[in-house]
Specification:
Blueprint lengths: L1 E6 L5 E7 L2 E7 L4 E7 L7 H7 L2 H31 L7
Length: 93
């Protein structure tokens, strides 16, 4: 797999990888990442095609998914904190 290119974006790091007959588009924030794999053929053949595929509506949906991922992570951390506090006290018999 090799890096085929990048897409400039103010909030996301977007890297395009190429391997055999597919492209992978990796989008990253500070702590989360999403990867989309696209087989070549049909509408996607070149790096330019991939860059067109990553359009404004796609980015909007990706950013919504990042918000949801962050929410999931924070809820899991909150559950972990509440569980660990309950286990801090010894059992009294």
């Amino acid at each position: 797999m090799r890096i085929a290119g990048y897409i400039e974006h103010p909030r996301l790091k977007i890297t395009i990888f190429q391997m055999d007959n597919r492209f992978s588009v990796k989008l990253e924030t500070g702590i989360h990442e999403q990867t989309y794999k696209i087989r070549t053929g049909g509408a996607i053949e070149t790096l330019a095609d991939v860059k067109k595929w990553v359009d404004a509506p796609f980015i909007t949906q990706v950013e919504q998914e990042f918000k949801y991922m962050h929410k999931i992570q924070m809820e899991a951390l909150a559950r972990l904190k509440s569980t660990s506090k309950a286990d801090d006290f010894p059992d009294i018999i």
